[in-house]
């Protein structure tokens, strides 16, 4: 009998213990069929002794780093007895998490509902629907949390709540989490312990895993978080204000939040940088040309902070390595970030930022 048949049989017998055993087995088998993601080394001879790496999270089956999170959240929900044989799954999302959760819900035969801001890219909505998820679009992006909670109550389902549980659903000490994987893949490089790891925050979950792992392993690596223009996280870090809010939704999908999410943990961050959106999208385009394929907007934010830290190390005559992430690919943003009309309508001018980044990457000219 296949596992899906065993799952059906457990459902027929309404045996939740048996159902959860089979569900965990299905997720484990899915993970066994998956490979780890690449750690790409950028070819930048001008940096001379500073090595820059990007962990390519766009190659997961659902196209972003949220594949890891969705798997962890399902394992957490099943092992806690919250997700059962007939549980409708509900999530508030800017899109990427919902795509990955729709994948795991489909794997287990559970109905899935995504509650998202109406500004979510059409490509992401189509991806969720292709995976048999239902999308509920809310005009005011800051209303997604309450709407998801209400929908879950109405459906007698589970509101997965990535923004609360991302930091605790992941095994941060090991279990091939993203931090352990990065340090393992770096182990035979010229500078195996990175001077900096750079990330941006959506839930803050990846940042928490990286920061905890660095401390746990007693590495000298420092953690820099890049925040987009419209986000409450920067103020939470710089002023210690966990009540900070931002009344405009972030333009960079996946990162920057209107409130300080419970999964965002400022204490393990060494530095935060606020990256203007025009610079993020310029970084996205410059990096896409360097790699020969398109990356997403948050990867641009990461890349700008990575270049600034690298530029400072170079100016100080230091050697070492830096690591950041490709969070997702650019194919989800064809109507927005890669559309010049959209960029112009936002009132953004990318050209000066593109020139500055390219002058740094080609000629080593410092960027400020
Ligand atoms: C979620 C997300 C991030 C941020 O990761 P967190 O672990 O949630 O902080 C960055 N980029 C994209 C595209 C994302 O979907």
TrEMBL record:
It catalyses: L-cysteine + H2O = hydrogen sulfide + pyruvate + NH4(+) + H(+). Keywords: Cytoplasm, Lyase, Pyridoxal phosphate. Coiled coil: none annotated. The keyword Iron-sulfur does not apply. The modification N6-(pyridoxal phosphate)lysine is found at residue 66. Its cofactor is pyridoxal 5'-phosphate. It comes from the Bacteria. Belongs to the cysteine synthase/cystathionine beta-synthase family. Cds1 subfamily. This is L-cysteine desulfhydrase Cds1. It comes from Reyranella aquatilis.
């Amino acid at each position: 009998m296949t596992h899906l048949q065993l799952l059906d049989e457990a459902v027929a017998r309404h045996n939740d213990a048996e159902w959860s055993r089979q569900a965990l087995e299905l997720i484990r088998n899915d993970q066994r069929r998956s490979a780890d993601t690449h750690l790409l080394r950028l070819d930048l001879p001008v940096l001379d002794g500073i090595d820059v790496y990007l962990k390519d999270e766009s190659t997961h089956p659902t196209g972003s780093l949220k594949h890891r999170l969705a798997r962890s959240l399902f394992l957490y929900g099943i092992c806690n007895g919250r997700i059962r044989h007939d549980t409708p799954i509900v999530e508030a999302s800017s899109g990427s998490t919902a795509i990955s959760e729709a994948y795991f819900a489909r794997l287990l035969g559970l109905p899935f509902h995504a509650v998202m801001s109406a500004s979510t890219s059409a490509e992401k909505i189509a991806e969720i629907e292709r995976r048999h998820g239902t999308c509920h679009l809310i005009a005011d992006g800051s209303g997604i949390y309450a709407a998801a909670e209400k929908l879950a109550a109405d459906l007698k389902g589970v509101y997965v709540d990535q923004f609360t549980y991302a930091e605790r659903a992941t095994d941060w000490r090991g279990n091939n989490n993203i931090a352990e994987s990065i340090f393992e893949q770096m182990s035979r490089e010229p500078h195996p312990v990175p001077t900096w790891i750079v990330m941006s925050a959506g839930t803050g979950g990846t940042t928490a895993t990286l920061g905890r792992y660095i401390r746990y392993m007693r590495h000298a690596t420092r953690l820099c978080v890049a925040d987009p223009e419209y986000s409450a996280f920067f103020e939470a870090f710089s002023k210690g204000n966990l009540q900070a809010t931002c009344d405009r939704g972030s333009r960079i999908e996946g990162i920057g939040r209107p409130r300080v999410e419970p999964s965002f943990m400022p204490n393990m961050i060494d530095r935060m940088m606020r990256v203007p959106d025009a610079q993020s999208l310029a970084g996205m385009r410059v990096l896409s040309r360097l790699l020969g394929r398109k990356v997403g907007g948050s990867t641009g934010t990461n890349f700008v902070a990575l270049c600034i830290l690298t530029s400072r190390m170079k100016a100080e005559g230091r050697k070492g390595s830096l690591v950041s992430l490709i969070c997702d690919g650019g194919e989800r943003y064809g109507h927005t970030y890669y559309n010049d009309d959209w960029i112009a309508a936002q009132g953004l001018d990318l050209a000066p930022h593109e020139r500055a980044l390219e002058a740094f990457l080609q000629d080593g000219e410092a960027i400020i």
